[in-house]
From TrEMBL, chain A:
One of its GO terms (biological process) is cytochrome complex assembly. The chain crosses the membrane at residues 21-43, 63-84, 91-113, 133-149, 161-180, 200-221. Residues 7-184 form the Cytochrome c assembly protein domain. One of its GO terms (cellular component) is plasma membrane. This is Heme exporter protein C. Required for the export of heme to the periplasm for the biogenesis of c-type cytochromes. Belongs to the CcmC/CycZ/HelC family. Its main location: membrane. It comes from Nitrosomonas communis. Keywords: Cell inner membrane, Cell membrane, Cytochrome c-type biogenesis, Membrane, Transmembrane, Transmembrane helix, Transport. It is found in: Cell inner membrane; Membrane. GO terms for molecular function: heme binding; heme transmembrane transporter activity. It is a multi-pass membrane protein.
Automatic annotation (TrEMBL), chain B:
Keywords: Cell inner membrane, Cell membrane, Cytochrome c-type biogenesis, Membrane, Transmembrane, Transmembrane helix, Transport. It is found in: Cell inner membrane. Required for the export of heme to the periplasm for the biogenesis of c-type cytochromes. The keyword Membrane applies. One of its GO terms (biological process) is cytochrome c biosynthetic process. Belongs to the CcmB/CycW/HelB family. This is Heme exporter protein B. The keyword DNA repair does not apply. It comes from Nitrosomonas communis. It is a multi-pass membrane protein.
Length: 246, 219
């Protein structure tokens, strides 16, 4: 079976496809979230070193993974939009940014909650924390640039350039921060050496990661649908959707 | 064509010296504010000096980014530049270099004097100046992308700081790090090599990205 991908590159047909897919992803997200949180908070054993407080990682780690992954996906779609001038790709990039920024924020916030009982401090200038913070700044930069530009096509392209420049810079920033951290002989704590995990912990974490994936996809599709409607509001198919004849 | 752009921008800067001097004095004032904020304890200041001078240089370079294209944009020169048959990347490189000559070089020349305020030893002063000499062109090169993207936008000045400052972080780390490493008795060559690498990479990619951004902004 071959799928005509170009068909779904049109915002009009993607709108309906996304509408059909959203319920599945939403239900999957809710189910996985409940299962994952149950495993995380009730099934997984108490960590002998970190006590109960470690359980925040079931939210923290999937959020951190997702925050980094989404930036790359965002830059990918923005780049496709810039190269092939496809409107839908750029809309996807715009739709991804707030979700990515939210996960970056969650990762930082839950990291602080984890850090307080573990290290006795809300924040350390650890390499990972610092690069996550910078990633948050990059998301904010992308979103504020797009928000400042009124013409959506210019916003798409300008956002694409800053996203691509950002994605090239992420490894540079990451290694700079890491070397900076080791040069200063860093905070004495490092989250790099994680203890071996019990199976239930690992299962909980992976299920939570999947839940976060499903949530992101559902959320991004919803936001993409809204963006499509907003941008295509003058077209005939949107008018038909509303039952308005012009 | 490259020299033509540089000569023109330098001539404009000479005719409007206030612009150059404001950036320089901003740099001096920011560096001089820190002792007033953290106290005149010389041992603390000596440790903080490289970071302070570098952060001030970042801010000064960033604040002057607005002028890189906006005057040309307002009087229509930029449109003519875009129409010119010469490669836009090359012309943009000229604008970047002249921005560095106008704002970067005065900072580099002023840095040793400010370092003396912080009681830095002579060897550290040399490393600080050299690190700025190597690092400030990168600021102009990367900053140009932000300046081109925010051209003619409302609130462009604040926006450019959000876009550009996170990208400046590696330069800050290794620029200030070089001075710290040399005062700690470690070698600063590795830091300089990395700064040089950043300079080369941004020299290759930044004019290209800036040219693309200008075309988007001028559509």
């Amino acid at each position: 079976m071959s799928i005509n991908w170009y068909k779904y590159a049109s915002p009009a047909s993607f709108y309906f496809l996304a509408g059909r897919m959203i319920p599945y992803f939403s239900i999957a997200a809710i189910v996985l979230l409940i299962v994952g949180l149950y495993i995380g908070f009730f099934v997984a054993p108490t960590d002998f070193q970190q006590g109960e407080a470690y359980r925040i990682i079931f939210i923290h780690v999937p959020a951190a993974w997702m925050s980094m992954f989404l930036y790359v996906v965002m830059a990918f779609w923005a780049g496709i939009g810039l190269a092939f001038n496809t409107r839908l790709s750029s809309m996807m990039a715009t739709a991804i940014a707030p979700t990515g920024a939210m996960f970056t924020f969650i990762a930082l916030w839950t990291g602080a909650w984890w850090g307080k009982p573990m290290w006795g401090t809300w924040w350390v200038w650890d390499a990972r924390l610092t690069s996550e913070l910078i990633l948050f700044f990059l998301y904010i930069g992308f979103m504020s640039l797009q928000a400042a530009i009124d013409d959506p096509r210019r916003a798409d392209k300008a956002g694409a350039i800053i996203a691509l420049v950002g994605v090239v810079n992420i490894p540079i920033i990451y290694f700079s921060v890491q070397w900076w951290n080791t040069l200063h002989q860093g905070a004495s704590v490092s989250i790099a050496q994680s203890p071996k995990m019990a199976t239930a912990m690992l299962a909980g974490m992976l299920i939570m990661a999947l839940a976060v994936w499903m949530y992101s996809i559902a959320m991004i599709l919803m936001r993409a649908r809204t963006i499509i409607l907003e941008r295509e509001r003058h077209t005939a198919w949107v008018a038909e959707l509303k039952g308005i004849t012009r | 064509m490259l020299t033509w752009v540089i000569r023109r921008d330098l001539l404009l800067a000479v005719r409007r010296q206030a612009d150059v001097l404001t950036t320089l004095f901003f740099f001096i004032i920011v560096v001089s504010l820190f002792p007033l904020g953290v106290g005149p304890e010389m041992n603390t200041l000596r440790i903080m000096a490289p970071g302070i001078v570098w952060v001030a240089a970042l801010l000064a370079s960033m604040l002057s980014l607005g002028r890189m294209f906006s005057n040309d944009y307002l009087d229509g020169t930029l449109e003519q530049i875009l129409l010119s048959p010469t490669s836009l990347s090359l012309l943009v490189l000229g604008k970047m270099l002249s921005h560095w000559l106008i704002t970067g070089v005065p900072l580099v020349l002023m840095a040793p004097v400010l370092g003396i305020q912080y009681d830095l030893p002579f060897s550290a002063l040399v490393v600080l100046t050299l690190s700025l000499l190597l690092g400030t062109p990168i600021l102009s090169l990367i900053g140009a992308i932000g300046a081109a993207l925010t051209l003619g936008l409302r609130g462009g000045g604040v926006l450019v700081s959000l876009l550009v400052l996170p990208l400046y972080i590696p330069v800050l780390i290794f620029g200030a790090g070089a001075v710290e490493a040399s005062t700690a008795g470690l070698g600063f060559e590795a830091h300089f090599s990395l700064l040089g690498a950043f300079l080369l990479v941004s020299l290759v990619f930044a004019p290209w990205a800036t040219a693309a951004s200008l075309r988007i902004s001028m559509e």
